[in-house]
Amino acid sequence: MVQKLLVVRNDKIGDFMLAWPALAYLKSASPTPHVTVLVPAYTAPLAAACPWVDEVIIDPGSSATPLAQRVLLKQIKAARFDALLTLFSTPRIAWLGWRAGIRLRVAPATKWAQIFYNVRVRQRRSRSAKPEYQYNVELACALINKLSIPQPPMPFPPYWPLETRQREYQRKVLLESVQANDGLLIVVHPGSGGSAVNLSLDQYADLVVQIHHISKTQPIHWLISAGPNEHPQAQELIRLLAKKSVVATHFPTRNSVEAYALQLAGADMLIAGSTGPLHIAGCLNIATAGFYPAKRSATSLRWQTCNSAKKRLYFSSSSSAPEKNMLAVDIDSAAKDISLFLSKY
């Protein structure tokens, strides 16, 4: 009999993308379970595009009206799930799963809300001892074990597999946007969506200029991407680069986060802070260069991208720097490391 699973990761886009390895693990089990995810509306398009998801339920959020909360509870009750897997636990979701009568409820053993789960996995994530996506896979393993299903092999990148011809098409579109026939396509995303500290625009400009002048093996085409309300920031970075004789253009505007993600599949590298686009790039298994603060709960290990290790670069403030002081990042060293990587690409 097919097991019906409800998986919850209802916070930021980057957090949801780091759930994809766990979702891939669940869908590789035999017999294959039916996987539904509970996500907020702004990550729903990505959830619908995820090859490891069968169905999407939209979470109205903690600020929704009591009526909306009752509708959600009724919807989950009606689905008759066999198990609930909460990758990041909150009291509202813990209480929701218990009231919905889901017999098996799995979550990290953290906070008082754990009393509503009957399988609690001690992880101590705040110590940042391993990547977030590995913590998620651990929870999926615990669920599979409790369902008495044979443990499947661990999945490996890419967690968002695309056909070669689809990637080639997206690359062609990006090359056309910069009026080129070949060369490296590097996307820089200077925004953070308010979820993570990031380099300043001056730091990004310095980084791009140095890479541009160090890398001589093939031409580099720079594309600057922006999230909602971040287009002025992207335009300012383009202006700063133009003052230093480096041409950059806007990453093609797309009408949905899914379309943005698919277009990103045509790039050779994404440079960004630890935010949604960086983790989308990780799932697509394109090269990433991520910038992280010194904060222990936000380290480069904890929020590591889930692409192949050979495609992953990361840079942090020194451990002695204040948690949110990204000015302590060594831009000169990062530029050299990224340039060396590109020379071997």
From TrEMBL:
Keyword Transferase in annotation: yes
Coiled-coil segments on the chain, per record: none
Keyword field: Glycosyltransferase, Transferase
InterPro entries: Glyco_trans_9 (IPR002201), LPS_LOS_Heptosyltrfase (IPR051199)
Record flagged with keyword Transferase: yes
Protein name: ADP-heptose--LPS heptosyltransferase II
Species of provenance: Vreelandella olivaria
